[in-house]
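Worked example 2:
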Amino acid sequence: MIDRLVPDAARVRVVRGRPSSLDDDRAVLDAVTDRVAATGVPAVRAWTPHRQVAFGRRDTRADDYELACQRAEARGYSPIERSVGGRAVAYTGSTVAFAAVIPTAEADPRQGLDARYEAATTGVVGALRSLGVPARRGEPDASFCPGAHSVQAHGKISGIAQRVRRDAAVVSGIVVVDAHEELAAVLDAVYGALDVPFDPTSVGSVARAGAPTPPDRVVDALYDSFCGEVRRASVDAASLLDSDV
């Protein structure tokens, strides 16, 4: 049983910031994962991605996927495709994303799947509660990117997904900080095109839960909750794109 997402490690790399372009920002996670696999040192990244709608694989196979992309672009959101997770997720520019990359020692890396989900959900709930958000597990009906690993407080605030390689597991997710009405509006248009049930009032945020907090404080709360007392070595996200290790 994992009681923290980064357990019993001598140290953890904390990746901060984001590159200036959306494409470079997306490349950071692959660079982080390769570095974790090569060194065995876990890494955690929390940041505010560029304004975008990230579509899941099921979305890309929908009949009106192109219409959904057009609706996102019309509202100022760049459409991208992601390799992990379920349905579309939107990032307003103040929305926080997180990714914990854990080296896998098991013969079958999927053996730790449930434990990592449990630790990540516990970590998100703990981080939000430290900010005064009455967070709890679960999600309202017809939420964005519906799934079993979600956190809510006056609406869905966070969803968590996982991707497993032979040498590393990537546990990632989203925390809605504010602008939940804007996020709900773009997702309503996108989900309508995809013919996916969605209730705009199901979108929550840290601000809607009564604890307005800057994104950087949410980032720090996630680092504290995921890493605990493990010694942290900070690295700039953009620098990873110029490094071989």
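The helical segments are 22-39, 57-60, 65-74, 113-130, 180-194, 215-227. The longest strand covers residues 156-164.
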